[in-house]
Amino acid sequence: MDTTPFTVDEALMARHRTMWATGDYPRVAREVVAPLGEVLVDALDVCSGEQVLDIAAGTGNAAAAAARRGADVTASDLTPELLAAGRAAFGDVSLTWDEANAEDLPYDDDSFDVTMSCIGVMFAPHHQRAADEMLRVARPGGRIGVVSWTPDGTIGQLFATMKPYVAAPPAGASPPPLWGDAAHVATLLGDRVHDVTVRRGTLVVDHFADAAAFADYFTRHYGPTIVARRANADDPERLAALDADLVALGEREGRRGQRGFTMGWDHLAVTATVS
C-alpha cells in the first residue's frame, strides 16, 4: 500500500459534490440503474450479520440490497443530497448513512467484512487512493467488490463523447471508466487480494423511446452531462455539436426490436478476498 502522505484536494471534492447534486441522479438511480445493486450483492454473496460498507453509495441501491439480506450496512457518499434521497427512498430498510470521501474514509483499519461500490468509487478522481482506502478498511479474509461501467460500453462512451467539451482533468486524476478495465483494477489491487473473480455483464435499458430521448434524459438529469453543457453554454455551436454527439451515441448504442428501443450498457464486476 502506498504510504505517501495524501492531502485531500478540497476544491476538487467540492466540485465533484456539486456535480453529483446537479440534476436528478436519484431519478437515474431509481429508473435506470437500480438492478446493478443486486448484481454486486449477488457477486459478493453478502450474508446476514456481515459488516458491510458501501463506498460512494449514491442513493443506496447496493446498500439496500445488502441490508435486505440481513447485513449490517453503512452507506457512505461524498454528496449529502444523494444520501438524503437514499434515506427517503429506503426508509423501510435498516441502514447507516454517512457523508464520507472515498479517498479519505473516516473508518478504522479492518472495520468491515465487505467493502463494495456500485458505479460509485469509479468516479473518485484518484483511483489508487480510492482502492487503497477500500482495502484498508476491509478485514483480512473479508471481501471487496466493485461494479463499474466499461470503457467501451455505452456509459464509458458517454464520457468519451463529452471529453472534448470539458476541461482537462487535474493532474493525477484518472478517467472513471478505467475501473471497468480488468487489467487496471488488477494493478490497483496488486497482491493484496486473492481469489479474484471478473464478470462482464450488460444492463438492458428500455427506458428511452429513441436516441434523442436518451440524450435528452442525460442532459436534464445526469450531473456530468449537465456540467459539460454548462461549460459550453456561451458557445452555441459547440453546445449544438455536443448535443448532436449525444444523440449520435444513442443511435450507435441503441437497437429497435420487440421491446422497442433498447440499449445494452456493459459493466464489469470484480470481486476478491482480502489477503
From TrEMBL:
Residue intervals of the Methyltransferase type domain: 53-144
Lipid biosynthesis keyword on record: no
Keyword Transferase: yes
Assigned keywords, A-Z: Methyltransferase, Transferase
Entry's Gene Ontology molecular function annotations: S-adenosylmethionine-dependent methyltransferase activity
InterPro entries to which the protein is assigned, alphabetical: Methyltransf_11, SAM-dependent_MTases_sf
Taxonomy, superkingdom: Bacteria
Pfam families to which the protein is assigned, alphabetical: Methyltransf_11
BP term (GO), one: methylation
Record Gene3D superfamilies: Vaccinia Virus protein VP39
Coiled coil: none
PANTHER family found in the cross-reference section: 2-METHOXY-6-POLYPRENYL-1,4-BENZOQUINOL METHYLASE, MITOCHONDRIAL, METHYLTRANSFERASE
Name this polypeptide is given: Methyltransferase domain-containing protein
Native organism: Nocardioides jishulii
